[in-house]
Specification:
Blueprint: H1 7-15, E1 22-30, H2 50-67, E2 71-77, E3 92-98, H3 101-108, H4 111-114, H5 118-123, E4 124-132
Antiparallel strand pairs: 1-3, 1-4, 2-3
């Protein structure tokens, strides 16, 4: 299970010395039922699905994302792979464009943003986050 970056993965991101915008590719696997045990203050009065908890995370996060120059470029439902392991599933894909690594860090460390990140943790069974940088197509 992967939900949060490690110190090493953050060092590697900064070590890439990315200048300019980047896109964060999120692969998301939702829990059947959201687990708010670590965040009882955010728990809804009745159980909800992981997808519903993640929707709450998105609603909470969007103002902080846009305030730091970021945007959601794509959010869509997953399904079976066309090419890939048949037993691996990702329920959703989210592409988030960040203005820079510094802007991403400002977003990810904002105390008010972090106050609602428990919705994400409650929602996810597993995830992947891959920072990618655009490049021109070969001629």
């Amino acid at each position: 299970m992967y939900l949060d970056p490690t110190d090493e993965s953050v060092r590697q991101l900064f070590g890439r010395a990315i200048a300019g915008p980047l896109t964060m590719v999120n692969l998301l696997r939702f829990r059947a039922e959201a687990d708010y045990s670590g965040f009882p203050e955010l728990a809804p009065p009745a159980p909800i699905t992981g997808q519903e908890a993640y929707d709450r995370y998105i609603v909470h996060s969007l103002p902080f994302l846009t305030a730091t120059g970021g945007s959601v470029e794509f959010f869509g439902a997953g399904g079976p792979f066309l090419v890939g392991p048949p037993d691996e599933r990702w329920d959703a894909v989210l592409l988030v464009r960040q203005a820079s690594v510094a802007a991403f860090l400002a977003f990810a460390t904002d105390a008010a943003y972090l106050a609602g990140v428990g919705h994400r943790t409650a929602a996810l069974e597993d995830s992947r986050l891959l920072p990618v940088v655009g490049r021109p197509l070969p001629a």
